[in-house]
Design goal:
alpha+beta, five-stranded mixed sheet, two-stranded antiparallel ribbon, 6 helices
């Protein structure tokens, strides 16, 4: 996808008309406007935008479909060190446009159903769904970039991780030992 600035993707369109006309839409969706996605990531920059390209078409059996690409910069939480991790989500997808569950069941396996009204589809909701599907389940920094890599390396080599030394008086059970020494 090109890096030139592009307009905002329309929120609602008539997907069946666009498929009949083989329209290609390119635009951006502000990530802060996608509440479910915003809650699923560690952080977003206020100006973060998802770049989207959607190609509406008819297949050989006259099924209406949309092929799409998206790219979005996000900040995830590394599951190793629990620190922020910049990441770019990228997805390519193919959806069959359907108006009922019966139509969705008749789609070929390579098409995921996208349930729409007869004359309206929410492209921002479609984008949000696709972003949620491509979130990695366990995001991890590269080992060389992770602050927890030293601890991980020592655990893998069998060395013991240094723990802070405790003063003898810091033992929480020392009070019990004192009670045991006293006779009632």
């Amino acid at each position: 996808m090109s890096k030139a600035p592009i307009a905002e993707l329309p929120r609602s369109v008539d997907p069946f008309k666009l498929a009949e006309q083989a329209v290609v839409l390119e635009g951006e969706v502000p990530l802060m406007a996608l509440s479910r996605f915003r809650d699923a990531v560690h952080a977003l920059e206020e100006t973060s935008r998802c770049r989207v390209k959607l190609s509406f078409s008819l297949d050989s059996e006259r099924r209406r479909m949309v092929a799409g690409e998206l790219e979005a910069p996000v900040i995830l939480e590394c599951q190793r060190c629990m620190g922020p991790m910049p990441y770019t989500l990228v997805s390519r997808f193919a959806l069959g446009l359907v108006t009922s569950d019966r139509q969705a069941q008749q789609l070929p396996k390579e098409l995921e159903p996208f349930l729409t009204d007869d004359f309206s589809a929410d492209l921002w909701s479609m984008t949000e769904d696709e972003l949620l599907l491509v979130l990695p389940p366990f995001p991890l920094h590269d080992r060389s970039e992770c602050v927890a890599s030293e601890i991980l390396a020592s655990l893998e080599s069998g060395d013991e991780v240094e723990e802070p030394a405790q003063a003898p008086g810091d033992n929480p059970f020392s009070v019990l030992a004192d009670l045991k020494k006293k006779k009632h």
